[in-house]
Amino acid sequence: PGAGLLNRPIVILVMLLVLAACAPAVRHNHKVAESALAKRDDTTLGRRIAPALAAHPGQTGMRLVSSNLDAFALRMLGARHAEFSLDLQYYIWHDDLTGKLLAGELVRAADRGVKVRLLVDDMDVRSKEQALQTMDAHENIEVRLFNPFQSASGMTRTIVEFLFRGSALNHRMHNKAYIADGQFALVGGRNVGDEYFGASHETNFRDLDLAMVGPAVDQTSAAFDTYWNHPTAVRVEYLKRGEPYAGGLDTLRSAFESHARESRDSPYVSRLLDSAELAAILDGSNQTIWSDEVEILSDPPYKADKQSADDPDTVLARLMARFAAARGSLRVLSPYFVPGRKGSEGLVAIAARGAKVEVITNSLAATDVAAVHGGYSRYRKRLLRGGVTIHELKPSADTRRNAGGVLGSQGSQGSKGGSSGVSLHTKAAIIDSEYVFVGSFNLDPRSAWLNCEMGVMVRSPELAAELGKIADRYADPANSFKLSLNANGQLRWTHQEAGEMQTVSTSEPQAGAKRKIVAWIARILPLQRQL
Questions:
Q1: Whole-model pTM?
Q2: Among 24, 84, 126, 294, fewest CB within 10 Å belongs to which?
């Protein structure tokens, strides 16, 4: 026993050296680089879209997707109608009601001969290794994990790996993109999971996608290919972290079919019977907005290899340049809003030029990450004194009212999933009532310097007006607190309750003690760059 104790440090040291040595080995092991399959117009989606594209040459057709139910239905229906290819890129993919339903639809598409490429960040999927390994075994499905861990599980191995690769592992792929047959794309803030589609019985997110047909879909495919072929995206079979299910694909198909039968009566499945939303987008209905100035913004994947994002091609650089050019107004929607000193100075400078600057974010009571709120709270007084308007969403907000042509004006039934609260997850901006940004980028240090991000920048007064209606609903005093400073420079929260306007000075209204403690700790510790 004594000798064993003496040798234990040596064994641990050897383990550490082995893990450190093999850390970069999983990166440079791909096959030949792949590109999205050449777009074909002879598919069902291609034929449906062709007349609308012909009527709007060189333009991208778009609709905002604000309804959680519609967002899920579009993903399911896109997979169901695909005949050629499906490319999906996500930060999170949960093993829950909606996650299983969509994964099952991908397998059924692959069984029809559709080529499926699934790229997921490894931070969330390690517990789903068997399912991913089994899906990857399908001849028409390939699964790659971005910036993968060496170990699939195990607290000790994970801690050891963070000791040696902590800096590298802290960089994650936060992008969200969905492309069907190279003809139809969704880009926005939603991951795959119940809380993103209104199916959670706890907190559900209020989020946004931009559904697109036309040239911007080609840009989205090109951005996907850049990540798919980067050494940081590793095929799951090369990681050797686990084995497929016993019984292989038959076992997985059986599990997905059983889950689909059990979920048949849910509003998320019944919504799939109504394909009017997808048809309206494909046919270019009068609610589809067209623009020839649509640009996909996507961080270069090498951002995951370095601490700095000082690059003119990053989402941060291009978004800040557009913000700085604002002259009349700037409305920002960001669930995790930590502007930092420079960001605060920039927003105040825009307001000083006479532009109306407004920020809509979560209250402490509504956020799902109290630590981020602690980082944000440092800058509230500075922003308010500089003329910036701040609204904080309430956990009881009901933002589902009709938004005209916004996709989400129907189908509100079940959109809260019986949940006990809501939380803002939309990452968007409106500049001068003319430019619109929708994407995955939060105005926080993590999005700016650590995570890879993407989004869509559009020049369209019509789209700006539609997004403005959504922002108006969030900022409604029944749904949010409007912040101000009293004569003594202390914060006040004004909102509408039971039809009456009320002003409170209680710190962080409606937030519990635990959230306040977490936020306070994050506020005083030097954690800003990690938030």
A1: 0.88
A2: 24
